[in-house]
Every structure is written in structure tokens, then in C-alpha cells.
Amino acid sequence: MSDETHVPERPATFREVFAQREYRAVFAATVLTWTGDYLAKAAVTLLVYQQSQSVALSAAAFATSYLPWLLGGPLLTTLADRYPYRTVMVVCDLVRLPLYATIAIGGLDTPVILALLFAATLANPPSQAARSAMLPLLLTGDRLIVALSLHASAGQAAQIAGYVVGAGIALYSPALALLINAATFGLSALIIWFGVRHRPAVPPEDGRRHLLRETAAGFAMVFGTPVLRAIAILVFCAMLFAIVPEGLAAAWATELVGTGAGRSATQALIMIAAPAGFILGGLLVGRGLRPELRRALIRPFAVLAPLALVPAVFNPPPVVVALLAAVAGVAVAGLLPVTNGLFVLALPQGYRARANGVMNTGVQVMQGAAVLATGVLADRFTIPRVVGLWSLAGVLLMLLLALRWPAAQRFDAAIAEARRRSEQAATPVPATPGRPAEQRTPPPNPRPPSSEAGIGAV
Q1: What is the pLDDT of residue 426?
Q2: The dihedral of CA 88, 135, 186, 119: what is its sign?
């Protein structure tokens, strides 16, 4: 059994994860850019509001970072599989640096600011996909799972810190916050360039084709492979529920305490509860539980994510609402890193960036759809009733998906098959007279591995 499929008796330690020099570079660069991005979000929304006095335009500035994922996320992430991952990450950082610096100059009209912001965020999907695809090359086995948990918790911590610090700096000078964000991209590019070694891109099994066809192949890989499809659907459905308190926090706080300083404090409490729970859950589950136990808890955590929010139907006070949201965050933290680790390990290397793009796009779409749907319902019914009944429906949905979750040996077989295909694709074809050695490109294999046959469609 390969290292990737063997499940050790004890969880990997943080020391073992950070002992990998290249991973330390990727982690540091990622936290830098995440923090800078949230600084910029807080700053640019205030900057746009100050210039336009329009709440709608300010909200549009905040939402701009989601547009690349919705409009072309999978297509953009396919680019990350065409080039070395290190190169993609560095180029994306260097593209974003001058764009954010230009926004900070000042004196630009709001439409120009929004256009520059959109151009900068176009680099997010390929950069994130390249990072996700690189991690399995740096770490294997349970060290990868612990690293993914660390990344998820660090992302939530960066969100909280970035919003708080960014809002504070933006009150003094939005331009300063934007310049700090630009600087983080420059520093990130240096860290990746000097801290991560070059690895050539691995071509797809059926060779390079049109960008749209390669993107379609990423969708086919995710939804045509039973275990990958099971992960995708479970994760997408989980995203329909945990995000709801954060998305409705402003209106919910108004229903709970009215207006004034109390409303602002209640809104902040609800908004940071789920990220705080995610951080706590990620550290406890990622480091405190044995690998086999973490995998066994995927289904219970999937059900707990919506179940934790069902008591909202009784209209509890703000502190209880925050606690419910925090428990949901803990459940998501117990679910996402483990399923993410299984997902990337069950992918042949040549598909990792674009398949992760499919997942990231799906997560963004489902979160946006959940907030939009519950927001529409909340115009007709009270927010506690909407959240409670929405979550109750989620419990039934997640129970159904949990019952159809593939057995552990199916994942082990899929991981072993993905490793074999990755090694085969990377094996050079021996040189012949007049023809140099080249990467092997086996014929396409559109069907899932035979070892996965029999898994129920999810």
C-alpha cells in the first residue's frame, strides 16, 4: 500500500508538517496574501462608499472578489495545470501588486476602481488552484491532511484579523491599507520564488488540447469519478448552511436588538462566530484526532453542520445564536480538510489544479445561493424561522448523503489508482534515434478506475 493510502496510527504533528521547508514558504506566502486581501476588502468598500455614498456600490466592491469564480473560475484554474505551479503563483502575485497599488493612488472614479479590482481578482482562481495542487507534491499522507487543516484555520484567522485591522486602518487611510495589500503580494512572490523549487508541469494523460476542452475534462474527472463526485456533492451541500448566519448577520442583529451600537456589536458577534468555531475545530480535529477517526467522522460532521443551527427556530438571544454558528463552524472544520485531502489525493496530478477550480467555484456558488435564497425568504418570514427550517431541511439532505457515502476502501483504491496514473503520465518515453525523450501521454481514460466500480451514484 502506498504512503498516500496507508493511514498511520497517530496523527501527524505540526512540527512534522513545518519541517518541510517548501511548505513553510507556501504557508507564509499564503497567510500574507490572505491577510492583505481582507485588509483590501475592508478598505476598498469604505473607499467606494466614501466616494459614491452608495451602499449598493460599496457592496459591489465587496462582492467583486467572487465574480471571477462565478464567471470563469474553472477556465482560469485550468491555466494553472498548463504551467509550473510555482510560476503560476509568482506571476499571479506580480499581476495583483501594481493593480492594487494603482487603486491606492487616489482620485480614481468608482467605475475605474471596480474595474481594477475585478482585474486583480482574476488572478485569484489560478493562484489558489496552483497552491492547492502543489501541496500534495510537498506533503503526503496525514501530514497533508494536517496541513490542509492548518491552511483552513489560518484562512479564517486571516479573515478576522484582516477585517478588524483593515477597518481600523481604512478609517485613517484606505490607501494605506491597499498599499499594504500590494506589498504582501510582492513579498509573497519573493518567498515562493526563493522558497519553492521549480517543478515542470505534468501534461494531461491525453495531451494538451483546447483550453475549453481541458476545462471540460476537469468537470468530467470530478463528476465522472464516483468518489470524487461523492466528495463534491457533500461539500457543496454543506456550504448551503454554515454560511447563512454570517450572510444574514446584519438583518438578524437588527431583529434581535434594534439599532445603535448594540446592533453593530451583535452583527460582529454573529459574523465572527463561525470563523472562530472553524479555527477551534480545525486545530482540535486536525491535530487531536487519529487519521482513521477523522475519516470516520466525516458523515457525523456533515450532519452536525446544519443540525447545529436548527435551534435558531426558537429565536434565541444573540449569544446563543453565536454559539450555534460556532458549533456549525467546528463541524465544517471537521469536514472540509479531511474531504479536501481525500479529494486531492484521489486526483491524477495533471488534473489537480482544474479539479480544485471546479470545487472552489462550486463552493462559492453554493454559498452565494444559500445567502440569496435565505435572504429572499427572510423578506417574508422571520429570520429565526428561516434559518431553523432551512437547517432542518439540511439535516435531512445531509443524512441522505451520509448514507450513500463510499466505504473507506473505495477511497484507498482511488488514491492508489490516481498515484499510478500520475507516475505513468510523468514517466519519460525512451528516446529513439532522431526523436528526443518526451513525457508519456497515455490514451484518455474517461471511465473511473475499475476499483471504484459499484459505488452508488451520489
Answers
A1: 58
A2: positive
Question: What pLDDT is recorded for position 447?
Answer: 37
Asked if 245 contacts 270 with a C-beta cutoff of 8 angstroms, the reply is yes
- Taking the domains of the chain in order of start, what are their residue ranges? 1-196, 210-426+442-449
Cell numbers of 99, please? Answer: 493593480
pLDDT of residue 59: 58
Q: How many CB atoms lie within 10 A of CB 434?
A: 5
Residue given cell 484518455 in the structure block: 444
C-alpha triplet 51, 55, 58: angle, nearest 5°: 60
What's the pLDDT at 55? 54
| Residue 248, CA distances (Å) to 51, 129, 163, 387 in order | 26, 29, 17, 9
- What are the respective helix, strand and coil percentages of the chain, to the nearest 5? 80, 0, 20
Question: What would the DSSP string read from start to end of 386-441?
Answer: HHHHHHHHHHHHHHHHHHTPPPHHHHHHHHHHHHHHHHHHHSEEPPBTTB--EE--
Distance of alpha carbon 140 from alpha carbon 6, whole angstroms: 10
The pairing of beta strand 438-439 with beta strand 428-429: antiparallel
Superfamily of domain 1-196: MFS general substrate transporter like domains (1.20.1250.20)
Q: What is the pLDDT of residue 77?
A: 76
Fold of domain 210-426+442-449: Growth Hormone; Chain: A; (1.20.1250)
∠ CA 36-65-214 to the nearest 5 degrees? Answer: 115
Same fold, 1-196 and 210-426+442-449: yes
Which among 118, 126, 13 has a CA at the least distance from the CA of 64?
118
Q: Which residues of 261-287 are buried (b: 16+ CB within 10 A; e: fewer)?
A: eebeebbebbbbbbbbbbbbbbbebbb
230 contacts 405 by C-beta, under 8 angstroms: yes
| Residues written for the chain | 458
The amino acid at 174: P
What cell numbers appear for 94 in the block? 506580480
DSSP string, 50-118: HHH--HHHHHHHHHGGGHHHHHHHHHHHHHHHHS-HHHHHHHHHHHHHHHHHHHHH----HHHHHHHHH
Q: What pLDDT does residue 133 have?
A: 81
Q: Quick one: DSSP state of residue 198?
A: -
| 10-residue stretch averages of pLDDT, the chain, 458 residues long | 45 84 93 86 74 65 71 74 88 94 83 88 87 85 80 80 74 84 94 92 59 76 88 92 80 75 73 84 76 86 94 92 92 87 80 78 81 81 91 95 88 82 62 48 38 30
Cell of 452: 471504484
